Automatic annotation (TrEMBL):
<dbReference type="InterPro" id="IPR037264">
    <property type="entry name" value="TFIID_NTD2_sf"/>
</dbReference>
<feature type="repeat" description="WD">
    <location>
        <begin position="578"/>
        <end position="611"/>
    </location>
</feature>
<dbReference type="Pfam" id="PF00400">
    <property type="entry name" value="WD40"/>
</dbReference>
<dbReference type="Pfam" id="PF04494">
    <property type="entry name" value="TFIID_NTD2"/>
</dbReference>
<feature type="repeat" description="WD">
    <location>
        <begin position="620"/>
        <end position="652"/>
    </location>
</feature>
<feature type="domain" description="TFIID subunit TAF5 NTD2">
    <location>
        <begin position="122"/>
        <end position="250"/>
    </location>
</feature>
<dbReference type="GO" id="GO:0005669">
    <property type="term" value="C:transcription factor TFIID complex"/>
</dbReference>
<dbReference type="GO" id="GO:0016251">
    <property type="term" value="F:RNA polymerase II general transcription initiation factor activity"/>
</dbReference>
<comment type="subunit">
    <text>Homodimer. Component of the TFIID basal transcription factor complex, composed of TATA-box-binding protein TBP, and a number of TBP-associated factors (TAFs), including TAF1, TAF2, TAF3, TAF4, TAF5, TAF6, TAF7, TAF8, TAF9, TAF10, TAF11, TAF12 and TAF13. The TFIID complex structure can be divided into 3 modules TFIID-A, TFIID-B, and TFIID-C. TAF5 forms the TFIID-A module together with TAF3 and TBP, and in TFIID-B with TAF8. Component of the TFTC-HAT complex, at least composed of TAF5L, TAF6L, TADA3L, SUPT3H/SPT3, TAF2, TAF4, TAF5, GCN5L2/GCN5, TAF10 and TRRAP.</text>
</comment>
<dbReference type="GO" id="GO:0006367">
    <property type="term" value="P:transcription initiation at RNA polymerase II promoter"/>
</dbReference>
<keyword id="KW-0804">Transcription</keyword>
<comment type="similarity">
    <text>Belongs to the WD repeat TAF5 family.</text>
</comment>
<feature type="region of interest" description="Disordered">
    <location>
        <begin position="297"/>
        <end position="349"/>
    </location>
</feature>
<dbReference type="InterPro" id="IPR007582">
    <property type="entry name" value="TFIID_NTD2"/>
</dbReference>
<dbReference type="InterPro" id="IPR019775">
    <property type="entry name" value="WD40_repeat_CS"/>
</dbReference>
<keyword id="KW-0853">WD repeat</keyword>
<keyword id="KW-0677">Repeat</keyword>
């Protein structure tokens, strides 16, 4: 908004940053004091106000670097590209000059300017009267309008309380809080606890929650009839105080049609900034899968023997051809093959794909009548504190990240972990021999467990590369480390986050990876660049979990602001915002066909989303604690969820996604009708003795592996 833009310009002038001021004026097309065509102003991570002058129509995230806390320094030359050009022939040659530039200013947005909107506008003693008057009006309105208008209670309560505190009416503020805080919905309790600690004007200055609430407009979705009713009431009563707050601090997304029911509203609200605007979920998303490269699947040895013995081919052969040809048709919803540069397949990758296809031919077809077996890996005596787990795609290795800052890798097959020989020994090897890959390994180093040292804080996320040559780990120390699984040493430390990094994940194609942390942004990296390629800014609290879409063109992030966002890797734009969870998000899983997303949070609910239409399509209730693990089976028939309540639950994904109501009306208004009971989708609940479930993984043959650390209490 203009106010914030002017405040930033004044701040730059006071700080003698004339050059930056000029650049910002130019970008925002502000000449002198003319406030003509003001561009969008976005405030990103808590450490830094990144003021991006964006041409109308651009998304929220800024492509390129220099937006996060890592760039606390004088503004750089705005025109310069942010991404280093490709190194060593790597496939990435992006330049992030997309008409968006970022000017980095001091630690916080000029707080006094942000708060000045709370200057006295009414008699403090009448605030309770105003609020109770509105409350009485809403509670006496017709049932169909009451549920929608009740959404106003929480944002108005917060803004009126903050206005009283800012104008130093402390006793009135306290009385106002005590009288009305009990009326708010239960899912806002944590926010109200933070709010109750803000009792003086000074407390407001450094408080992030406060600033977020003030700078991001709270979004309410209300039908036109309900809105007209509210407007008429406030104008009749001449209740300017509340009308001013509605106009200045709330964004009312008005739709034509029937008002929504209490159930429909409750399903969608609960995030820090209200619901998502419907416009936010309108962009086209290419959710289809990329075409697999074609190559022949050689027969197994035993198949060939079978042929010789019987004189006719075995029945398995056509099945394998099907597996090879399954992905030959181009998916109409898939992105263009070259939309983002992906690494080329090496011979070893092709070999692995062939193995994968052979395994797929023997895969168990799951369903309500045929549930998977579950193999649980329990970490016993994990006094170091298990904080993260990952399992390789071929299920041969498992890694644990621990609170004592170590990363431990185990082999879960009889094959032990070996390092490559020293350079001197390698020079003696005959490089032409057939078994050269076996010879380079040093038998003396063989062991079931390797411990990797390097981080200086708890390790919160781990991820194996698809080719099993590398391992990522992220930590409280603010770094993401890349480890070699050939030498079991650290190759790179990526420094970009200034605060703890909560999660990291490799792209399904390798080379790229994503990280998300306490600085509220997610970063996209490539293994051969030490700077991030993209910075995804927009969340209002920590980014707690990250996931790549199966086609690698999109990234999903879950946050403590109780929203899930989907970002486009190509241009850094946010293309979906999903609201509905009532607590921080801790797990994400894309369905194998790329159409759906499952999310789990501290509220114990699993929510299902249709990515193409941008709608919630299901809610799975059953868990009683935070859901830390979600995974679809290999063919998408079953969704497994693992929770801190020590259970693994299996859900019927086919049934959950069939007969979806995605007609034009539903899509236009966001009206969703969730079935009252999700128990008919629950296929099984499996309890551990006392082990919270932190990771789930389906093997290539659909055996479910689960992992967690035994807790004695």
């Amino acid at each position: 908004d203009r106010q914030t833009l002017v405040a930033v310009l004044q701040f730059l002038r006071r700080s003698n940053l004339r050059e930056s001021e000029e650049i910002l004026r130019r970008e925002a097309r502000l000449l002198g004091d003319d406030l003509g065509n003001v561009a969008t102003v976005a405030t990103s991570s808590p450490g830094v106000a990144a003021v991006a002058a964006v041409p109308p129509g651009k998304g929220e995230a800024r492509g390129g670097c220099g937006v996060g806390p890592s760039s606390r320094r004088e503004p750089r030359d705005v025109g310069s590209p942010c991404v280093p050009r490709s190194v060593g022939g790597s496939p990435l040659c992006w330049d992030t000059r997309v008409g968006v530039s970022a000017v980095v200013v001091e630690d916080q947005p000029d707080v006094s300017a942000v708060l000045s909107a709370y200057n006295q506008q009414g008699d403090p003693t009448l605030y309770e009267e105003y609020y109770s008057g509105l409350k009485h009006f809403i509670e006496c309105s017709l049932d169909c309008h009451r549920a929608e208008l009740s959404q106003l209670f929480y944002p108005l309560f917060v803004h009126m309380y903050l206005e009283l505190v800012y104008n130093q009416h402390e006793s009135e503020a306290k009385s106002f809080f005590e009288r009305f805080h009990g009326d708010q919905e239960c899912y806002y309790q944590d926010d109200l606890r933070v709010l109750s600690s803000l009792t003086k004007k000074e407390h407001m200055r450094g408080n992030e929650t406060m600033l977020d609430f003030r700078t991001s407009k709270f979004v309410l979705r209300i039908s036109r009839d309900s809105y007209q009713l509210l407007k008429r009431h406030l104008q009749e009563k001449q209740n300017n105080q509340i009308w001013n707050i509605v106009q200045e601090h709330l964004y009312i997304d008005i739709f034509d049609g029937m008002p929504r029911s209490k159930q429909q509203i409750d399903a969608m609200v609960g995030s820090l900034a209200g619901e998502a605007k419907r416009e936010a979920n309108k962009a086209k998303v290419f959710f289809g899968l990329l075409k697999e490269p074609e190559f022949d699947v050689p027969l197994d040895d035993e198949d060939e023997e079978g042929e010789n013995e019987e004189g006719k081919p075995k029945k398995k052969k056509p099945k394998k051809d099907n597996v090879g040809s399954k992905s030959k048709k181009q998916d109409p919803n898939a992105p263009p093959q070259n939309r983002i540069p992906l690494p080329e397949l090496k011979d070893s990758d092709k070999l692995d794909k062939v193995m994968n296809m052979k395994e797929a031919a023997r895969r168990v077809r799951l369903g309500p009548e045929c549930l998977p077996s579950i193999c649980f890996y329990t970490f016993l005596n994990a006094y170091q504190g298990l904080t993260a787990v990952d399992i390789t795609d071929d299920s041969s290795m498992i890694v644990g990240g621990f609170a004592d800052s170590t990363v431990r890798v185990w082999s879960v097959t009889p094959k032990k972990l070996r390092s490559v020989k020293t350079a001197a020994d390698l020079s003696l090897i005959d490089k032409e021999s057939d078994d050269v890959l076996e010879r380079i390994m040093d038998e003396k180093t063989a062991s079931e467990l390797k411990i990797l040292y390097g981080h200086s804080g708890p390790v919160y996320g781990t991820s194996f590369s698809p080719d099993r040559n590398y391992l990522l780990s992220c930590s409280e120390d603010g770094t993401v480390r890349l480890w070699s699984l050939q030498t079991f040493t650290c190759l790179v430390g990526y420094k970009g986050h200034n605060y703890p990094v909560w999660d990291t994940q490799f792209s399904p194609y390798g080379y790229y990876f994503v990280s998300g942390g306490h600085d509220r942004v997610a970063r996209l990296w490539a293994t051969d660049h030490y700077q991030p390629l993209r910075i995804f800014a927009g969340h209002l609290a920590d980014v707690t979990c990250t996931r790549f879409h199966p086609n690698s063109n999109y990234i999903a992030t879950g946050s403590a602001d109780r929203t899930i966002r989907l970002w486009d890797v190509l241009n850094g734009n946010c293309v979906r915002i999903f609201t509905g969870h009532k607590g921080p998000i801790h797990s994400l899983a894309f369905s194998p066909n790329g159409r759906f997303l499952a999310t789990g949070a501290t509220d114990g609910r699993v929510l299902l989303w249709d990515i193409g239409h941008g709608l919630m399509v299901g809610e799975l209730k059953g868990h009683t604690d935070t859901i830390y693990a979600l995974r679809f089976s290999r063919d998408g028939e079953i969704l497994a969820s693992g929770s801190m309540d020590n259970t693994v639950r299996l859900w019927d994904a086919v049934k959950a996604f069939e007969d979806l109501e995605t007609d034009d009306f539903t899509t236009a208004t966001g009206h969703i009708n969730l079935p009252e009971n999700s128990q008919d989708l629950l296929l099984g609940t499996y309890m551990t003795k006392s082990t919270p479930v932190v990771h789930l993984h389906f093997t290539r043959r659909n055996l479910l592996l689960a992992a967690g650390a035994y807790s004695s209490q």
